[in-house]
Automatic annotation (TrEMBL):
Pathway assigned in UniProt: Cell wall biogenesis; peptidoglycan biosynthesis
Keyword Acyltransferase found: yes
Source organism (scientific name): Micromonospora gifhornensis
Region annotated Disordered, chain positions: 36-55, 401-442
UniProt entry keywords in alphabetical sequence: Acyltransferase, Cell shape, Cell wall biogenesis/degradation, Peptidoglycan synthesis, Signal, Transferase
Annotated catalytic residues: H332, C350
Protein's name according to its UniProt entry: L,D-TPase catalytic domain-containing protein
Entry-linked CDD domains: LDT_IgD_like_2, YkuD_like
Pfam families per UniProt: Big_10 (PF17964), YkuD (PF03734)
Upper lineage: Bacteria, Bacillati, Actinomycetota, Actinomycetes, Micromonosporales
Length: 442
């Protein structure tokens, strides 16, 4: 009997406990929902927490996507978000560095992703309520493609060039027009001090960048092409990213006036030398326009027999040659015309100077320095050299694959801030320049 009584007591205790739990659960479901009511229990369910204002979704790469290009950007849409951050990790959990686009709609890795690797992108958006929301997308990068396009730069790291130097990037094959906007979005230029500029497609295989005005003397310029793994049409992809850092030298400008037969050389706005010249005679006039020193040859040979034939052709040794056009116009020393320099034009289109003045110019100029020739019988033909400065800014921006967006005044005038044009490696020139001995005209 004593044992039976104890069992009954335990059953009573158990029933009372179950009743207490049921009452407690009923209280949790009918409380204030976290509105600050002191009678509401502190362990209410998440369903009663206020919903976050912000929302975010990832559109590219899609979740579980395969064969994603190595140059992919994380593209997303965030609503009512005051702050957005992106984190990309590889299969080992290592974070990938990258940059959020100015429009806040995408994030680009700092370099091409690894072929065959798996990644997870997490985008976090936070509204003015301070509550974060996240979206994730796991994806796998494609295997390394067999068809890759080489991307090269005319300039190499740490070169010092003149104030008229365009930034020249070449592609190993033609880029279809519909792919150029995305390529140009991956081409950025940073200058210190800040200067407005734009990319201009010279041809399907070449794009150049120039500032609105000549580069400011002493500027530091860095340009980058993030096209490694980027689709470039017909199953071709960019081989690798390209980054080049250069410096701009003093503002040295050569101005030649046919009416005076003189070259005036200025450095940073001050005249430092006046040089007598002989330009092209009437049958072979020099070109009028703004040209740029493209290469410098201490000694070379001008050979025009292939171009002019055995009767008019010549083969001549030349000192202190500076190329201005692909057609063969140079500044160079011409001791045979020193008697005519300053008075008469006798050259085949080149700017003839004395041996001493040729040496002085050669020692003071850089590739990228501008020369302006005025008053001759022939205008400079576009494309005959780096003729980027021979067109107006309004014309130049028409060569961009992206709409031109003028820089804000405060940015353009800022002397210390960096200017990054976001929409708009190896450093060698794939296509050889015309042979100096094949088209030179002294």
């Amino acid at each position: 009997m004593r044992v039976r009584d104890q069992r009954n007591r335990r059953r009573g205790v158990l029933a009372a406990g179950m009743l207490a739990v049921a009452l407690a659960l009923t209280s949790a479901c009918t409380g204030s929902g976290g509105k600050g009511d002191g009678n509401a229990p502190g362990w209410q369910g998440g369903a009663d927490q206020p919903a976050a204002k912000a929302s975010v979704t990832i559109s590219e790469p899609a979740a579980d996507a395969k064969n994603v290009p190595a140059a992919t950007a994380i593209t997303f849409a965030a609503q009512e978000a005051e702050k957005t951050s992106v984190e990309l990790t590889d299969s080992a959990g290592k974070k990938v560095k990258g940059t959020l686009a100015k429009d806040g709609k995408s994030w680009l890795p700092a370099k091409a992703l690894s072929y065959g690797e798996s990644y997870t992108a997490t985008v976090t958006a936070t509204g003015d309520d301070g509550l974060p929301v996240t979206a994730t997308s796991a994806f796998t990068v494609m295997k390394q493609p067999s068809k890759q396009v080489r991307i090269t730069s005319f300039l190499g790291d740490d070169q010092t060039v003149g104030v008229a130097m365009p930034l020249i990037v070449k592609f190993g094959r033609a880029i279809p027009e519909k792919y150029r906007p995305e390529v140009q979005r991956r081409m950025t230029v940073t200058s210190s001090p800040a200067q407005e500029g734009i990319w201009h497609w010279v041809s399907p295989t070449e794009v150049r960048y120039r500032p609105k005005e000549f580069w400011k003397a002493g500027s530091k310029v860095s340009y980058r092409v993030q096209a490694g793994g980027l689709p470039l049409g017909d199953g071709w992809y960019g081989r690798a990213d390209l980054t080049v850092d250069i410096k701009i030298g003093p503002k040295l400008v050569m101005t030649v006036d046919n009416s005076t037969k003189r070259m005036v050389v200025t450095r940073d706005g001050e005249t430092i030398k006046t040089i007598p010249v002989s330009l092209g005679k009437k049958s072979t006039p020099s070109s009028s326009g703004t040209m740029v020193v493209m290469e410098k040859l201490r000694k070379t040979v001008f050979d025009t027999f292939d171009e002019l034939g055995p009767e008019d052709g010549y083969r001549t040794k030349i000192d202190y040659a500076q190329r201005l056009t692909w057609g063969g116009e140079f500044i160079h020393a011409a001791p045979w015309s020193e008697g005519q320099q300053g008075t008469t034009n006798v050259s085949h289109g080149c700017v003839n100077v004395s041996m001493a003045n040729g040496a002085w110019l050669f020692n003071n100029t850089k590739v990228g320095d501008p020369i302006v020739v005025k008053g001759t019988e022939r205008k400079l033909q576009l494309g005959n050299g780096w003729t980027d400065w021979n067109v107006s800014w309004e014309q130049y921006v028409k060569g961009s694959a992206l709409p031109y967006e003028p820089a804000e005044d405060e940015t353009a005038d800022d002397e210390t801030a960096d200017d990054v044009t976001t929409e708009d490696g190896t450093t060698e020139d794939e296509s050889a320049d015309p042979d100096v001995s094949a088209s030179a005209t002294p």
